[in-house]
Amino acid sequence: xxxxxxxxxxxxxxxxxxxxxxxxxxxxxxxxxxxxxxxxxxxxxxxxxxxxxxxxxxxxxxxxxxxxxxxxxxxxxxxxxxxx
Length: 84
Fold this sequence. Notes:
This protein has one domain (8-83). It is built from 3 helices and no strands. It has helices at residues 3-23, 30-51, 60-83. The termini are far apart.
């Protein structure tokens, strides 16, 4: 991995984590936590969405949408665990 690809992953994760924090209110983890949630969400979406037959497309916008979907899923799961 190059430095540029790591920066792109961090930016996509940050945007996705921020968007997921807005969508799922009350379950935010701060800026750094949301970046981590966005990156993990991107991994979850990259694994889960193709298995469900969902293909959004390519490019940065599609990567942000995929990562946001995964981050929202992760935040909902973490919120359920946190409340239990």
